[in-house]
Amino acid sequence: MSSKLEARSISRSFGSTEVLHAVSLTVPPSECVALLGASGSGKSTLLRIIAGLDAPSGGHVLVDGEDLAMVPVERRGMALVFQKALLFPHLNVIDNVAFAARMAGTRRKEARAEAMDYLELVHLADYARRPVGSLSGGQEQRVALARALARNPRILLLDEPFASLDVQLRHTMYDLIGDIRAQLAPTIVVVTHDRQEASILADTIAVLDDGRILQHGTVHQVHYQPATRTVNELLGGLNTVPGMVSDGHHHSVLGSLPVQTGATDGPSDLMIRQEALTLVPARGPTSRLTSGSAGGEPPTIKGCVSGLTSLGARTLVRVLVSSENPTGTRHGSSADPPPEVSERSLIAGGPLNLGNTEASGVTLTVDVPGHPPLLSGQVITLSLQDQRAWAVPTE
Amino acid sequence: MNIPITGSRPHQADPHSPAPSSRQDLTPDRYAARGAPGAVTLRGVVLAVPAVVPVALVIGVSVVGALAQSLGLMPFIGEPVLSTDAWAGSAGDLGRSVLVSAYIAVASTVASVIVGFVIALYVLATPRMGRIIAGLSAATIPIPHLIGAGAIGLLLSDSGFLDRTLGLPPAFPTLVGGSWFGAVIFEYAWKESAFVALVLIGSMSRSVSGMCDAAATLGATAWQRIIHVVLPLSRPALAVSALIVFVYTFGSYEAAWLLGPTSPEPVSVRAVRLFGSVDLAARPEAMATALVSLGAGIVAILAGLAMMRRSRGLR
After folding, report:
1. CA angle (B289, B80, B253) in 5-degree steps
2. What confidence category does residue A256 fall into, taking pLDDT thresholds of 50, 70 and 90?
3. pLDDT of A86-110, one tens digit each?
4. What is the pLDDT of residue A163?
5. Is residue B226 one of the residues assigned to a domain?
6. Residue B145 belongs to what domain range?
7. Do A88 and B215 touch (CB under 8 A)?
8. Mean pLDDT score of chain B
9. Is residue B76 classed as helix, strand or coil in its secondary structure?
10. Per-residue pLDDT at B222
11. Would you say residue B117 has pLDDT above 70?
12. Which of A1, A148, B228, B240 lies deepest, with the highest CB count within 10 Å?
């Protein structure tokens, strides 16, 4: 049932506007890839080109090595589930699911018998004879999914199919997709603008922006090792600190932090996921940043609370880290930038349009569980878990 | 989590502070200001009066007047005398006229629906060229049938434009004034197919594209998409527009009068001829004919609505 999908240098222009720029993507058999991007990034256009509903301006779509350029949509062996269920209103539930078999010439009775298997898969066998107008939004999407699966597609394409569902229903659908993957193992390409959805559903995530794939990697890679600052932002990263990389360390208003091996020397943005930062009890020294590598402890950063945003069960704590430490004490020499890169140049020379950078420091956001009893202006200490600082060259 | 507090600040950033409520309850006073359900219904009736009264007045007076005249109760001259002569005396001719009108209406409706569906299909399938066709169709709508009938006469008559430019063979069927009402049906099909197409385009333009995409990804070929998706989706709009076309062409007068043969006459032509006759005694017969035309139209509408209600697509 599953096949390998390749998109090679796919381009698409609408008049003078180019919405896809030589996009290449490979999806191994039985894998699930999420195309993640903001509205207008070109992800749905790419999916429609793969499905054959739109023709590319350049490039090729291959399935198991076969070029599909001359293959019409109905013979590509793919099925697409749209954001709207698009169930046929003149057919009842089972006839919607049996549609593909009927179009293939299967007799009505057999087609309905096959359709019933797929309705059972999506737990809607009891709704077989109902008109589609009597279904709820979630049931409609499940029927749409069953209808697509009944096509026995080589590749299943999902174009934001759960975007209009409520959170609880969405998680039910995620479980359903998991069941389907376990039972049928189809190759899946899912388009979404929801990074959480992409992380739950997909094995790998391809991040699209402005018609280009910025990064294609595992869920962990795109979250904690973003290729660019844009990827970090699209994946919900809230902390970007401008600075300079040299000798495996990023030097910034935060001080000096060890970064990944192979980081390119020069102007760089430091990415620290808000989930990688934790609040720790303050200790005696009031240094701005303490590298804990010598003692085997994670680096810590001091700052003062500048705001709190409740996320329900979690809270985002915004912490202002000044170029001077919050208590007015000069920072320790161990954390100073190298002589050739002054702190002022790091701040003034960096991209000052950054949302979280201020003239006298930087605001870091920390995602903490519960509702910490913090006061605005309170001095707190942050700890960076697992050395998860990641530097990328400044765009 | 143990967070030491090392300083205090004058204000607290508390994420739990309740947001000021913007909700305003519907107090009894506000409810009364809005109005109780009964008051709302009464207001609706009052608002509808300016639209309903003139229509009811015109139709009611017309029907009652026509019925009275057909029964001799409202003679042009002389004393009112109840008589059914206008109905019974020409029942045979009236029946033939009804059949002719029904034939013209059925043929025109079928042709309009088929051509209109094809036009709508083309417009929806080819957005760029379709826009031109949709524009031409829209431009056809406001042309009066009288002008259309005149143009069709100039085009299709024995010495018309088509005959002069193409030199039609003598065996070519007579369209204008022919016994099959060819030119009449052609004129109605030309005008009404544009109407049908615009109704279909308006009703399907938002849904048909997505549905056809879904069907295509499910393996339906272009032809299967037309038969199994577009046609069923268009059925409600097709039924409504077909009903309108049928009723209109059944009772329409100009095209049949200009392009049809002198005999047999459609109901509408017969009614107008008798009404305009120098013999004032024919006036009751004209009214009876007009009422038959009206009755046939009402029967057609009721039958059409009953059929559509039974259809699943219109629920």
Report:
1. 20
2. confident
3. 999 999 999 999 999 999 999 999 9
4. 87
5. yes
6. 92-264
7. yes
8. 85
9. coil
10. 95
11. yes
12. A148
Residues B302, B307, B312: CA angle, nearest 5 degrees: 140
Supply A149's token pair.
């699966």
Picking from B48, B74, B43, the residue whose alpha carbon sits closest to that of residue B61 is B74
Tell me: the pLDDT tens digits for B219-256?
A: 999 999 999 999 999 999 999 999 999 999 999 999 99
Q: What is the DSSP string of B228-295?
A: IIIHHHHHHHHHHHHHHHHHHHHH--HHHHHHS-SSSPPHHHHHHHHHT-S-GGGHHHHHHHHHHHHH
d(CA A86, CA A66) in angstroms, rounded, equals 29
CB pair distance less than 8 Å for A82 and B214: yes
In chain B, which residues have their Cβ closer than 8 Å to the Cβ of A147? 218
Which helix or strand (DSSP H or E) is residue A109 part of?
A: helix A108-121
Judge whether A132 and A86 are in contact, CB under 8 Å.
Answer: no
CA distance A389 to A245: 12
> Please, which residues bridge with residue A366 across strands?
A317
Residue of B nearest to A53 (CA): B213
Per-residue pLDDT reduced to its tens digit, A299-341: 788 889 999 999 999 999 999 988 664 333 333 333 443 333 3
CB atoms closer than 10 angstroms to residue A54: 17
Classify residue B273: in a domain, yes or no.
no
- Establish if B165 belongs to a structural domain: yes
Q: Do A151 and B7 touch (CB under 8 A)?
A: no
Dihedral in degrees, nearest 10, Cα atoms B226, B230, B232, B237: -130
Average pLDDT over residues B21-41: 54
ipTM of the complex: 0.81
Question: Which chain A residues have a beta carbon less than 8 Å from that of B228?
Answer: 99, 102-103
Per the prediction, chain A carries an average pLDDT of 85
Contact B301, B243 (CB under 8 A): yes
- Find how far residue B86's CA is from the centre of its chain: 31
CA distance B206 to B212: 11
**Does residue B222 belong to any structural domain of this protein?**
yes
Q: What is the CATH number of the domain that holds B199?
A: 1.10.3720.10
CA distance A381 to chain B (A): 9
| Exposure on the CB side of residue B179, measured as CA atoms within 13 A | 0
Q: How many domains would you assign to chain B?
A: 1
* Residue A83 backbone dihedrals phi, psi, to 5 degrees: -60, -45
Q: Do B210 and A308 touch (CB under 8 A)?
A: no
Question: Mind listing the pLDDT tens digit for each residue in B135-171?
Answer: 988 899 999 999 999 999 999 988 889 888 888 887 7
- One-letter amino acid at B144 equals P
Domains of chain A in sequence order: 5-221 (3.40.50.300), 239-393 (2.40.50.140)
CB contact under 8 A, A375 and B217: no
